[in-house]
Specification:
alpha/beta, Rossmann fold, 2 domains, 11 helices, 12% strand, globular
Length: 273
């Protein structure tokens, strides 16, 4: 799937600006040929640190709809939407308004709602409602429900239920499927941890009885590798899908293919049958 990056759509197309990949993907899949979607976050870039170019601000000003996540996930986008008086739709606010805490009681604190397929379906419904595409929305949501079923089946019988990640991004996914997440927080992945801090993280991994420390594709694996090496466990990739690399997009990666790869990595690390 190719996401259009022009500032304005072809004649008759609705001009949509999306803050980063999961939103852009849902908007394009649901909107189809009726929309022109501009993804503000370039492929391979980390969305948290996004700095807008002048052309991005112009695109926001001219857009029919701007879909983003609020609560400080991308401050530059929030500021541009407010200053341009654009038609901005805060998808995080909409999802939390309708769901609050999920049935496992996970508090609505972190913004990574799209890693829970059912919460992502909530985002998709809002996008579909704004774009007035009920049939395409229903089809996309059905695919997400099928993915949820695949995850439930794949993680139902596992020897372990704890995952260790370099970034506290997987709380919603863990809560949905009965897992617990321990994140290597408090240290920048780019920084050299002090011996004392490293020892504490190593002890945390050992006490969790995890066999794997997961790291991400868009940030340095340095900290995860150091902790895993000293704790004598493996490392593997668990992709938070904040953005895809140019190479993965070139090879046809999508939200669904990456989520299935994540499931395969989780099943291996957790010893699932």
């Amino acid at each position: 799937m190719v996401i259009t990056v022009t500032a304005s759509g072809a004649a008759g197309q609705r001009r949509v600006v999306a803050a980063f990949y999961p939103i852009a993907y849902a908007a394009q899949e649901i909107g189809g040929p009726t929309v022109s979607v501009r993804n503000l976050t370039p492929a391979g870039a980390e969305p948290h640190d996004l700095e807008l170019q002048p052309s991005d601000v112009v695109a926001i000003q001219r857009a029919d709809d701007v879909f983003y996540l609020g609560e400080g996930f991308q401050p530059a986008v929030e500021k541009a939407v407010a200053s341009a008086h654009a038609h901005g739709i805060d998808l995080l606010e909409r999802v939390r308004l309708h769901t609050g805490k999920d049935e496992q009681g996970h508090p609505a604190l972190d913004p990574h709602v799209w890693l829970d397929p059912l919460r992502y379906a909530g985002m998709a419904r809002t996008i579909g409602h704004v774009l007035a595409r009920p049939l395409a929305t229903a089809s996309f949501v059905a695919r997400l429900r099928a993915l949820d079923g695949t995850y439930r089946a794949g993680l139902a019988r596992c020897r372990r239920r704890a995952i260790v990640t370099s970034h506290a991004a997987f709380g919603y996914l863990a809560a949905r499927y009965g897992l617990t997440q321990t994140a290597l927080e408090g240290l920048s992945p780019e920084a050299e941890p002090s011996p004392r801090a490293l020892a504490k993280l190593i002890d945390t991994v050992r006490r969790s009885r995890a066999t794997t420390v997961f790291f991400e594709t868009l940030v340095s694996p340095k900290l995860a590798e150091a902790v895993a090496r000293n704790a004598d466990v493996k490392t593997a990739v668990l992709d938070p899908l904040e953005g895809l690399t140019p190479d993965s997009l070139h090879h046809g990666a999508t939200y669904f293919t990456v989520m299935r790869s994540n499931l395969a990595a989780l099943r291996l690390a957790l010893g699932c049958r």
